Amino acid sequence: MTAFIxxxxxxxxxxxxxxxxxxxxxxxxxxxxxxxLARAPGLDPAAVDExxxxxxxxxxxxxxxxxxxxxxxxxxxxxxxxxxxxxxxGSSLDAAMAGSRQIxxxxxxxxxxxxxxxxxxxxxxxxxxxxxxxxxxxxAVSTTLGWRLVNPRMPQEWxxxxxxxxxxxxxxxxxxxARQDEFAARSHRLAHQAWEDGFYxxxxxxxxxxxxxxxxxxxxxxxxxxxxKPSFRPDGTxxxxxASPLSxxxxxxxxxxxxxxxxxxxxxxxxxAGRGATALDPRDFGRAPVEAAxxxxxxxxxxWDQVGAVELNEAFAAQSLVCVDAWLKEGLRDPELxxxxxxxxxxxxxxxxxGGRLLGTLAAVLRERGERYGVAAICIxxxxxxxxxxxxxxxxx
Length: 397
Fold this sequence. Notes:
By secondary structure, the chain is an alpha+beta fold. It has a domain at 3-119 and 245-391: Peroxisomal Thiolase, Chain A, domain 1 (3-Layer(aba) Sandwich), CATH 3.40.47.10. Helix content is 31%, strand content 19%. The protein has eleven helices and twelve strands. It has helices at residues 25-38, 66-73, 91-104, 162-173, 177-196, 222-226, 261-264, 288-300, 317-330, 344-347, 354-369; strands spanning 3-10, 14-15, 50-54, 82-85, 110-118, 124-125, 141-142, 247-257, 270-279, 307-312, 373-380, 384-391. Strands 1, 2, 3, 4, 5, 8, 9, 10, 11 and 12 form a ten-stranded mixed β-sheet that branches. It has a two-stranded antiparallel ribbon with strand order 6-7. It is globular and about 60 Å long.
């Protein structure tokens, strides 16, 4: 059995405390599911074998299995089961990988996957005291991003901030502030142009009156970014301008077997050709997509010279450049093949939704450009990376 992508959509990504701040994450997820089903109007929702959903937080309104909640809120029959997976930033890509395996093993014909994150609405949490009625004060911990309630047995060098990890990474690989700012400005420029060209009209489902990604700044230039102060070190290079912002949003990807085309009522957009997962030292998480992509390409039987498009999640410009530099050494033809429609620095990075965004964008880019193979890759905090190779069925020789 082979797994295909039949449809993909996402909500616009909102700023932290922005237009989607009033929308619960389970409602955001349901909006993505509804938008996805609208792209396959001939599909009987009862024919969906499984919902597999990604979410990185799980501490607030998205608790209690948000994948199941999204399906119920979107009106799927109660007979459609649902589960939620958590691989932090890679959660929705992990969900699609898991769904594709179900199809390939014959356990399912149609799997609805996706992911959601409201970083605005992520709650503060309080640890339970070891015994009742403690005399001292306690502090609420934000669950928006990063390590929290850290186990003291963890080595301190592993639990530094994500930004500090990438300051260390860019030092080891010689990535300058100027390159980071140029990469970030490119992200905004290309994202804005993609919207102006109508590219994202086909892959985005409006929600709560928001019909465009909220964080894109068309006027951003390297010169403007050069004036921003470092965020993690007084003498550092990573700023709020060359890193992805806190965001809210959801995505959905419809997977099916080849024989599911009739039930879905449309032809597939792309074939899942290869998958890769990798892990390394938590401090080096930013370069984990390098090996993950290599593994996915090897399993697909494809070389970098055959890749016509790459969607890499831009957690930070620094780690993105480290990955691109490595791929160029491994045979990637042109760095301009990476994130041709902008990336997370401009579009936003709602953790649990970013992997599915990559897949939907990559499938659309491959069809637009007539390219056969593409790679979607993402770095994941605590030292992991995921990648998927897609094949455009229309471009087979």
